[in-house]
Design a protein that fits this description.
257 residues, alpha/beta, six-stranded mixed sheet, 23% strand, binds adenosine-5'-diphosphate, binds magnesium ion, ATP hydrolysis activity, AAA+_ATPase
């Protein structure tokens, strides 16, 4: 995978909903290959920031750059196609489909070339239909997340934790560069939590970049080498887990919630 420096830069982001200012001038960067954590007390503006980055909300002001390109105001599918993806909850109509079918729905034509090469090393130059490529990639991804035994299960029958694994597997199907996760461990039992974190660390070593949005400070402190703290819509502090853990303002912000 080719390094691209600072894949994500958020610059002076503002988002208002009527009279409510959810994000109030947030600026931060996510470095290539990092596992960066975005934390903050409830209502800090984390999810709104996440939604602005991924195109779900249009920012009121400020800019978002992905690989030095201004992506502010692009539609979610346009942003995803560029290699910046997020996880989505399995929609109701997809619950009737199997786990394998859910993975194979990853938008066709969005499968990165490196992904195709990774799954079909012996087939380069030969004729492989996109359907076959996607199926191969889906099985490889199921295997990676250790949910291959659930391939023919309806997504609606999965446990909460298994759904989280499927949601992450779906996001990975397109071989993205930057993956945004909003509270990926909420409601996940400790065994699956460990597995999910382990997969994230492994993917990161393979060159993926992650921005993990979490309310739970400990998860972020224990797993992210760089932590950004939001409070009242802007960035209150940044640093390593240890720096943040001992930051008076951060402690105060969390105590005040
Ligand atoms: P966090 O994810 O850090 O808990 P949010 O981004 O969800 O924070 O919310 C930040 C603030 O913006 C909160 O005060 C919340 O009530 C408000 N807010 C978020 N989304 C909306 C919306 N769609 N309409 C109105 N207010 C919103
Ligand atoms: Mg939130």
């Amino acid at each position: 995978r080719t390094p691209t420096g600072v894949p994500l830069r958020v610059d002076g982001l503002v988002k208002r909903f009527g009279g409510v200012t959810a994000v109030d001038g947030a600026s931060f960067e996510v470095e290539q290959g990092s596992l960066t954590g975005l934390i903050g007390p409830n209502g800090a503006g984390k999810s709104t920031t996440f939604n602005c980055i991924t195109g779900v909300h249009e920012p009121t002001a400020g800019n978002i750059y992905f690989k030095n390109e201004d992506i502010t105001g692009l539609k979610p599918y346009q942003i995803a196609r560029k290699g910046l993806v997020r996880t989505f909850q399995i929609a109701r109509e997809l619950e009737e489909m199997t786990v394998l079918e859910n993975l194979m729905l990853a938008p066709k034509g969005q499968l990165g070339e490196s992904a195709i090469r990774a799954v079909t090393p012996g087939l380069r130059g030969e004729v492989v239909t996109q359907e076959e490529e996607i199926r191969e990639r889906a099985w490889e991804t199921l295997d990676f997340f250790e949910i291959d035994h659930l391939a023919t299960e309806h997504a609606g029958n999965l446990s909460g934790g298994q759904r989280k694994l499927l949601e992450m597997a779906r996001a990975l199907m397109t071989d993205p560069e930057l993956v945004l996760l909003d509270e990926p461990l909420a409601g996940v039992n400790p065994t699956l939590e460990e597995k999910l974190l382990d997969r994230i660390h492994q993917l990161r070593e393979d060159g993926y970049t992650f921005l993990l949005v979490e309310h739970d400070m400990d998860i972020i402190m224990n797993n992210c080498e760089h932590v950004i703290v939001m409070h009242q819509g802007s960035v209150l502090a940044e640093g390593t887990g240890d720096e943040i853990r001992n930051n008076e303002q951060v402690i105060e912000a969390y105590l005040g919630e």
